[in-house]
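Now read this:
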Amino acid sequence: MIPPMDGPDEPLDEEEAEEEEEVPLSPELLAELEGFVLIEDWDLAVSRAETLDILADGLRELEDDPAIEEWVAEYGERDFHLAQERDGRLVISDVFPVTGVVGFIPKAVVRLLSQELLGQPEEDREAWVESLSDLASEWLSLLSDEEKMVGHLIRAHGLASDETAEDQASLVATHAGLHAGS
């Protein structure tokens, strides 16, 4: 007799189910991030989405709660700058770099993000950071891919397909306007 294989049909035990649960961002933080990233200037919107994605990935790499708390203590009340070194490496800085500026997140957004992160129970922080990372990655993918933007405008916002036959910058402006109005 062949033993049953573990697979997607197998029920999750309680511990696995807890790990799978999403911890959403607050509506206040979502609105702040949306207002920061989903703007009419396509180049700036992509830059902001990239910077948020790198910030979220950096938080994901922190190994434990003390590391998260240390990061928040060091960077949580400062502007977040992303710069490129001469050798091409991206570095995170809390001061405005003289050259090689790649991205920027103002301290008001970083502060709100940090407060919400620390406000999560320790067992939920990893899932919360994953939610932030998923959102940033989704926006970056959406903004940098015209086909995805068109699909999003049609499916999520109900635009007619003939209204999406514009250049990417116009689509981003349309998208930002729809989010600003909602």
Summary: Residues 25-144 form one domain.
